[in-house]
Design goal:
Blueprint (H helix, E strand, L loop, with lengths): L11 E2 L10 E3 L2 E3 L12 H27 L5 H7 L2 H4 L10 H6 L6 H12 L6 H10 L16
Antiparallel strand pairs: 1-2, 2-3
């Protein structure tokens, strides 16, 4: 799969003449005016990065297909949400979960790791994101939100 420009994320515009017609730049790649990748503008590092991205996409599609094979009644949209590149990365044990950054949306972690970090730090087991945010606010990690409590037992 050849990547196309993702206009929902940050990208740069190229003004003036680009030798291969590049008008946009994103993630170190150049794209034409229609948002298609310009493969002729890539160096060896970018070719290797593109190959890695294609391998990741292939691994994700294989994992989704296998999941749907084992769970044929599963909703495809749910499977797409559950099985993605971030969830297929190998787990690193040294990485500390930054709960404040996760709550702000600047870092993404597997939800199970977030709940484990909250359980270890605050001795409480949240079951959804709202409960996580509430626990973090109660313990001063983030600013409190004005909404109804989600865990009445706390």
């Amino acid at each position: 799969m050849t990547p196309t420009l993702d206009r929902s994320r940050d990208y740069g515009t190229i003004h003036g003449d680009h030798e291969l017609g590049g008008q946009f730049a994103q993630d170190g790649f150049f794209y034409d005016g229609q948002g298609f990748l310009i493969e002729g503008a890539m160096d060896e590092v970018q070719v290797a990065k593109l190959a890695e991205l294609r391998n990741q996409d292939e691994a994700v599609e294989q994992a989704r297909a296998k999941f749907l094979e084992l769970m044929p009644n599963a909703d495809k949209a749910t499977v797409d949400k559950l099985i993605n590149v971030a969830n297929l990365r190998p787990a690193t044990t040294e990485e500390e979960i930054d709960l404040a950054a996760w709550a702000a949306g600047s870092k993404n972690y597997v939800f199970g790791k977030v709940t484990k970090a909250i359980r270890e730090q605050f001795n409480v087991s949240p079951v959804n994101k709202l409960q996580c945010l509430e626990i973090l606010a109660e313990n001063g990690v983030i600013a409190p939100r004005s909404q109804t409590p989600t865990s009445p037992s706390l």
